[in-house]
Amino acid sequence: MIVLLLAGAALLYGLQSPAARTTSEPAGTPATAPPPAGPVPDRFTERWQAPSPATPVPTVAGAGVVVADGSRVSGRDAGTGTERWSYSRDLPLCTVAEGYGRVMALYRNGEYCSELSTLDPDTGTRGPARTLDARPGTRLIGTDPVLATGQDYVETFRSDLVRTAEYGTVRALEEPGDQPRTGCSFRSFAAAEDRAGVLERCPGDRGERLSMLRPSGTEGDQPAFDSSEVLGTDGAQLIAVSPERAAVLLPGVPRLLLLDRSGDRVGEFPVGAGGPIHVPADGVARTSTDRDHRYWWTGGATVALDLRTLQPLWTVPGSLGPGTRYGDRLLVPVPGGLADVDPATGEVARTVPVDRAGREGPVQVAAQGNMLVELHGTDVVVLGPA
């Protein structure tokens, strides 16, 4: 009888376990990366496209491109779009991102985006998994740490997926009073090495507050901060953080407020926004990064920021997104094509034609070798040299 009960319990657990509710089809052959980017070609043409509403940015990982829709994540050959692997669960996807060299697929279970699976980007084989306390609408941003965003709660985790900090409305506090503030609403987010920034509005504060978490100093539910300063603004945006700075777009006439690691104001710098400011619904500014710069899309222009100081350097007006490095050049999406830009000076050499088949609106772009991955709304479109 005991044996039967144990067998029944094991069967019930197996039916309810994540593995039993998962369909995993790993790649059967090694991945082949596209050739590296060389000189910018005279033209790019569309190679393939796929719906990917669960990837908020174009996601290149390993040697391929990741698309995600519904409950399914798949790895595609960058050049052909051929599916190489897939992974799905009987839960809806909240978001998908690349981090720590893995594909991170976050699924919704009930009220929370709690089920995080990691996948090898070239084979689709499953790696470590963990649970989060994120709410729907969350983004996974940054690489060290990864920050899971939220309207009143954020958490960070390191490469082994161990949680390193949580801040806000914590579901199960270890001790009352561990969190420094309650009832705050979080408005925008950014992350850098051992730093996670939250621009928030808290009861009793005279304006918005910028709180800079330091995950390595956190103990239990008690978050550690480099600084937490009331800015006195209403309608600001946190654009970017670096190991020593934070850049906040102030309301009104567009200008960046730079603050140092202690929260002291370094200065304000005007920016040419080129039109109405884009206010991202998910609270994450549209940016991209290379070894020297962070490129920020304002809604009407691309602004290059020094990667360390975050000081604005130059602007490309009339853009549709932040752009991506392609060899030694920067390609910035513009109406009708891609501006071929010198990343050191912002000088535009030419516009490389791209037929976007009537698609309009913002464009986010990433390079995978000599291929370009554009995200138009919820659709991935991959371009190759003509």
Notable characteristics:
386 residues, mainly beta, Lipocalin, 5-stranded antiparallel sheet, 1 helix, disordered N terminus
Protein described:
This protein is mainly β and 386 residues long. It has a single domain (23-43, 51-321), classed as Beta Barrel (Lipocalin). The chain has one helix spanning 2-16; strands at residues 22-25, 44-51, 59-61, 64-69, 72-76, 83-89, 93-99, 102-109, 112-119, 126-134, 140-141, 146-148, 153-157, 163-168, 185-192, 195-201, 209-213, 225-230, 237-241, 245-250, 255-260, 265-270, 287-289, 293-297, 301-306, 312-317, 324-326, 329-334, 337-341, 348-353, 364-368, 371-376, 379-385. Strands 1-6-5-4-3 form a five-stranded antiparallel sheet, with no helix packed on it. A four-stranded antiparallel sheet has the order 2-33-32-31, with no helix packed on it. The longest helix has 15 residues, at 2-16. The protein is globular, with a radius of gyration of 22 Å.
What is the structure about, briefly put?
It is built from one helix and 33 strands.
Draw up the topology in text.
Layout: H1 2-16, E1 22-25, E2 44-51, E3 59-61, E4 64-69, E5 72-76, E6 83-89, E7 93-99, E8 102-109, E9 112-119, E10 126-134, E11 140-141, E12 146-148, E13 153-157, E14 163-168, E15 185-192, E16 195-201, E17 209-213, E18 225-230, E19 237-241, E20 245-250, E21 255-260, E22 265-270, E23 287-289, E24 293-297, E25 301-306, E26 312-317, E27 324-326, E28 329-334, E29 337-341, E30 348-353, E31 364-368, E32 371-376, E33 379-385
Antiparallel strand pairs: 1-6, 2-33, 3-4, 4-5, 5-6, 7-8, 8-9, 9-10, 11-12, 12-13, 13-14, 15-16, 16-17, 17-18, 19-20, 20-21, 21-22, 23-24, 24-25, 25-26, 27-28, 28-29, 29-30, 31-32, 32-33
